[in-house]
Amino acid sequence: MAHYKAADSKREQFRRYLEKSGVLDTLTKVLVALYEEPEKPNSALDFLKHHLGAATPENPEIELLRLELAEMKEKYEATVEENKKLKAKLAQYEPPQEEKRAE
Q1: Which residues contact 24 (CB under 8 A, 6 or more apart)?
Q2: What average pLDDT does the segment 9-33 reach?
Q3: Residue 21 is inside which H or E element, if any?
Q4: pTM score > 0.85 for this model?
Q5: Which of 100 and 47 is assigned the larger pLDDT?
Q6: Based on the domain organization, do 51 and 64 belong to the same domain?
Q7: Distinct helix (H) and strand (E) counts, the chain
């Protein structure tokens, strides 16, 4: 009988842990969303993975990639701007297109 109470106590502790961490609430919401779907998906597991994936915090690697992308965009814009300036500077030293054709 003592073994039964110990197992029951561990189960209750685990349930409280899941409840405190929000797992039970999140699972309930996703399952309710699946239940309320007018057309049930072919794979309920894929539905759960998709909806639970959206609720999880982002992977740190994704954040690093976003930062790297932002840096690359800034470098790209700076390069485009520099290219425009250099083209304008070069145009000062080249004869106009009409003069080239006349030769």
Answers
A1: 15, 18
A2: 92
A3: none
A4: no
A5: 47
A6: no
A7: 5, 0
68 and 41 both lie in a single domain: no
Tokens of 78: 């700076």
Over pLDDT 90: what percentage of the chain?
Answer: 50
Closest CA to 48 of 67, 66, 31, 32: 31
Q: What type of residue is 33? A: A
Instruction: Look at residue 42 and tell me if it is in a domain.
Output: yes
Which residue's entry shows tokens 């965009």? 73
Residue numbers of the domain that contains 64 = 58-92
Find how far residue 5's CA is from the centre of its chain: 44
Asked if residue 74 has pLDDT above 90, the reply is yes
**One-letter amino acid of 103:** E
72 and 23, same structural domain? no
Tens-place pLDDT, residues 27-60: 999 999 999 999 999 998 888 888 887 645 567 8
Residue 102 included in any domain: no
**Which of 61, 30, 60 is closest to 46 using CA atoms?**
30
